Amino acid sequence: MSKWHHRFLGLASHIAQWSKDRSTQVGAVVIGPKKEIRAVGYNGFPRGVDDTIESRHQRPEKYAYTEHAERNAIYNASYTGTSLDGCALYVTHFPCCDCARAIIQAGIAEVFVDKSKLTPDFLERWQQDMTISTEMFGEAGVAVQVIDDEGSTEPLS
To answer: Which cofactor does it need (predicted)?
Structure first.
C-alpha cells in the first residue's frame, strides 16, 4: 500500500508547485475509495481574482486573498458536482482548523500528511491550529496519518 501513499502525496507535492504563494506552496489531492482522483487544490487566489497586484502577496493582506489547498480541493469538487464522502485527502502540510472543519463537513474520512513538513518551525507556528484540528478530527472520526519519505504511514502522535 505504501506505493499508493507515496504516489498520492507526490501528486499533492506536484500540485503545490502550481501555487504562486512566495513563501509556502501547499497542495492537496482527494482520492476516492477505488484510488481515483476526485479533486485537487493548491493555495492561491480564487478564480478570476487578480494575482498580479503586488500588495496582495504581502502579509498580512495576502491572508485575505489566499485560499488554502484543502478548501480549494473541496470547492473544486463542489464546482464539478463531485462527492468527497468517504474519500481520503493527501496534503503536503497539516490542515489548519478552518480546513479541518471543511474536511469534516465534506465527509472526507482520512487525512494523510507529509511527515517531512512537520518541522520544528512549522510545529511551533501552527501548534494551536494543529491541536484544534486534531481534536476535531478525533471527535468526528476522521483518521489522520503521517507519511514518511518511503510512503509508510503512522498515526499522528
So the answer is: Zn(2+)
Displacement of CA 150 from its chain's centroid (Å): 20
Burial status of residue 109 (CB atoms within 10 A of its CB: 0-12, 13-18, 19 or more): middle
Q: pTM surpassing 0.85?
A: yes
CATH architecture group of domain 1-155: 3-Layer(aba) Sandwich (3.40)
Q: Is the pLDDT of residue 12 over 90?
A: yes
The active-site residue, picked from 54, 67, 70, 135, is: 70
Q: In what order do the strands lie in the sheet with 27-31?
A: 37-42, 27-31, 88-91, 110-114, 143-147, 153-155
Q: Decide if 70 is catalytic.
A: yes
Using DSSP's 3-state secondary structure scheme, residue 54 falls into: helix
Mean pLDDT of 129-136: 96
What's the CA gap between 36 and 87, in Å, rounded? 10
C-alpha span between 45 and 43 (Å, rounded): 7
Q: Is 146 helix (H, G, I), strand (E, B) or coil?
A: strand
Q: Is 87 annotated as a binding residue?
A: no
